[in-house]
Write the structure tokens for this entry.
Amino acid sequence: MRVAERLHKYHGLGNDFVLLDRRAAGGDVGVEMARALCDRRRGVGADGVLVLLPSRTADVRLSIHNADGSTPEMCGNGLRCAAKYLLEEKGGQPAALTVETEAGVLTARAVWRGRELQELEVEMGPARLVAPQLPSFQSGVPMVGAPVPGTPFHGTAVSMGNPHLVLLDAPLGQAAVWGPQLEVSRGFVERTNVEFLARDKAGLRVVVWERGVGLTEACGTGACAALVAATLAGWVEPEGYHRVLLPGGALMLRLAKDFSQVTLRGPATFVFSADVPVLREAGESPSS
């Protein structure tokens, strides 16, 4: 059955999302609906779908869906876009809100410039080198600057609630070649995001092959994982803010010395709102 539903389009440095506010009524979307909305020829077109739902532990629960219908644990750009919508909706220039995600409850803080919510600063949680989605889970030994099997490259595996393989010596221009192969690397039981990392005078440069999406303009958790790998490689020092340049633009990130928190600051941009016919699926998850 098709019904009209209000949707909102946002992007974080070109990483774009369809946002559905279903806090009042309606459950999460299913695989087919996520794919249909993200289809750039037959749907709205996006890298992912963000669904806002009620939460018992935070201001809101955020459910995230990739363009292929899979569900990542976290998305830094998506979190900023959802936070921008919610903070601006409240009115009165609120300072912060809490968001329940599959990676835990995270805090988003507003950076206001006059009446404009210019940027958002998000506490992305801890960076882990041993986690169930990483090859290190079986051995207990972190993968840090290690040879990546089947490639001439070296990489570091990091969990930001979702898995990442950060390549330290792979050409950025090879992301489309190696990304699809490395997304399904052995030892990453839930597939992995793949970051191609380089350094320059202004900071770090990253190109991301996103699990379930492909090449993307920006990836917040990928930028976080890249900073962790760069710190472990001795390229940058922890605690201070560092500029991470992605194809869609720059983010500022800070890594705590003990890896207990990665803080990300960057913009989120509203594109449009519209009422569209949405196919309600029989298998949609109920809100909780």
User: Anything to note?
Assistant: The mean pLDDT is 94.
